[in-house]
Amino acid sequence: MKYLVFDSKKEASKEAYKILKSLIDENSTLGLATGSTPTALYEEMIADHKAGNFSYKNVKSYNLDEYVGLKPEDEQSYAYFMKEHLFNAKPFAKSFLPNGMAEDADQECERYDKLLEEYHVGLQLLGIGRNGHIGFNEPGSSFDGKTHKVALTQSTINANSRFFDNEEDVPKYAYSMGIGTIMKSDTILLEAFGKNKAEAVKAMIEGPVTPEVPASVLQNHPDVVVIIDEEAASLLK
Ligand code: PGA
Asked: Is the pLDDT at 40 greater than 90, yes or no?
């Protein structure tokens, strides 16, 4: 696992975008993440697309996860987040997310896994949770899991409550692409910023490979680039 440390999120995101561009072509399929981490990277993508330097119009994308029970037009849904931060400015050929409003969870997971078979994800973008989760694969998740419905941990609910008016409004469940699927992508680009990610980053890079730290599985992937700022790197040896 290779890691690169930068002074700021902005600088790191510029480099992340350069790496992203060097790894994809105009027909690639991307795995996308939500949350505060990738927003600056998405700004770089939009700027480059608007400048006419790179066309994303044939690119396909799959998102990692979605809250259960939120409609796509709900401002807290990840479908809405993706429109706001990327898709409105730069539509891809096709973009897929789990459907948080699906009536039957098992059927929804099967549907998303079928969709995931259509295009091979060349590059998967990831953030990391304070508890080491990737996507919404919380501690204890199987390393070969597929799409599943997850009961979010209190740590995740606390962390994500900053986006909601009240902690009680944070959904308790989500659909997440499984770790087995994430590990099938050719290259993984994981970003992490801020000191509240330092422990998770250390455990991911220097700790044992264990389901208790889902991101530690990335030590088993042949091509992972971790982009972090000084604060997120502060506990590394
Ligand atoms: P964040 O979330 O980007 O909002 O910090 C990342 C994650 O929980 O995976």
From this structure: yes
What span, in angstroms and rounded, lies between the C-alpha atoms of 13 and 8? 8
Check: CB of residue 201 under 8 Å from CB of residue 192. yes
Cα(135)–Cα(160) distance, rounded to whole angstroms? 13
What is the number of helices (H) and of strands (E) in the chain?
7, 10
pTM above 0.90, yes or no: yes
Does residue 171 sit in helix, strand or coil?
A: coil
Token pair 């700022």 in the structure block, residue: 229
Whether 184 and 146 have beta carbons less than 8 Å apart is answered as no
- Residues annotated as catalytic (active site), given as ranges: 65, 131, 133, 138
d(CA 41, CA 21) in angstroms, rounded, equals 11
Half-sphere exposure of 109 (CA within 13 A, CB side): 16
Residue that has been written with the tokens 């590059």 in this structure: 123
Mean pLDDT of the chain: 97
Q: Which neighbouring-strand residues pair with 189?
A: 125, 225
What is the mean predicted confidence (pLDDT) over 155-180? Answer: 95
Whether 46 contacts 90, CB under 8 Å: yes
Segment 128-150 shows an average pLDDT of 97
Q: Which residues line ligand 1 (CB under 6 A)?
A: 35-37, 127-129, 133
Separation of CA 159 and ligand 1 centre (Å): 8
User: What is the DSSP pairing of strand 123-126 with strand 187-192?
Assistant: parallel
